[in-house]
Amino acid sequence: MALPIVATLTGLCAPSGSARAEHDMAAMSANHQHDGSEISAGVAVEAAQFDTMSYVGSYQGVAPSIGWMRGRFGAGATLGLYHLTKNGLSLYGVGDMMFTGHAMVFATETVQTGLALHMMAPTGSELDGLGMGHVMAMPSAWATWRADRLSVRASAGYSWALTGTGGAQHNHGPSPLVDPMNMQEVTWSAGGDLDVVHGIRAGVRAEGGIPTGVGSERVIGAGRIAWGTSRLSTAFELQLGLAGDPFTIRGVIETALRF
Amino acid sequence: MRVVVLSFVVGLGLVACTNSSIPEPTQAVCPDPDPGTLTWDSFGQKFMADYCTACHDSSLSHAQRNGAPLYHDYDTLMGVLEIPDHIDQYAGAGPASENTEMPPSQCPSVMGGPLNRACPKPSTAERTDLAVWIACEVKRPH
Questions:
Q1: Is B55 inside any structural domain?
Q2: Predicted structure pTM score
Q3: Does residue A24 belong to the interface with chain B, where contact is any CB pair within 8 Å?
Q4: In a domain, B14, yes or no
Q5: Is A12 helix (H, G, I), strand (E, B) or coil?
Q6: Nearest C-alpha of chain B: how many angstroms from A148?
Q7: Which domains does chain A have, with CATH numbers?
Q8: Which of A91, A186, A187, A209 is at 20 to 30 A from A220, Cα to Cα?
């Protein structure tokens, strides 16, 4: 039981990021094996360094989250609080809030697929680089395959800015805390996990965004280790910005409690 | 599926209480013919020195810029002309909008120094002149 819980953990504590969230929804739905309701509460702590075309600096954040699942359906919300240092300026503030709804549409012993919708609300200041300045809609589809100790998952989606709802009308450009970074983009993720020993999983994954209009492509690679019990789970992930200047390196540690 | 719909609705609903300040183009226009009264020498250089170049100067290193993005440097006319629309949307005033996002609340008292004083703010008339000057300057040969 511990291993599914560990996988679920990463979904509940996801920091901002559509491809990341798609990956996480796959993990959450794939490991919710009964029809009863579950409530989860978690927190993610992250630290990153970035060196983009416009800014050099770092940030630290803490992102509490809540989640709910029942049967094939689930929902969650998370909001990050950040300390951002960029080009010598130090500031604090909230990031954009993300709401998620997801549903499993097909499931067998080894294969599961589902749909997810992420909505990002512009609670973070665009001017300070803490948010997008507009609503972002991020529908996606995901699939997982599991055999023995190995599980593989992938997702694909499309993200677009709903500027007609009152947000900024211009492309916000690259910003280390803003993900997705493009106004319209195709998002993708792929990864795998291996049961190392009882209660411990290790995995790698990659995610990215491909702009469909003006923008820049980005790719992130990550390695992760997760451990836990049936109630309390923790994971650590080290991420590298491989292309598109999202950040140079980021570490995220996440803990979740499931009721 | 109700959960998915609910998430969508809640997400949209939150917009109503966020993002109150949105940079917008002023839609200022340069008179035709260009009277040539607002130029870099007569207006732009002093405006930038008074309100902008304490942080937006090409001589400042990363750590001295107090958050100003790299390549947003207004100590030369060519620097301004790199991103005229951005300046208009953050500090200009015109028929469509009066943008007051810049200057921010705190500024350095010396170029590249710490944020230790309230920023001097341009008047509405100065912001209007800024938008008109930019509208004219982008049309002039350089």
A1: yes
A2: 0.79
A3: no
A4: no
A5: helix
A6: 31
A7: 2-258 (2.40.160.40)
A8: A91
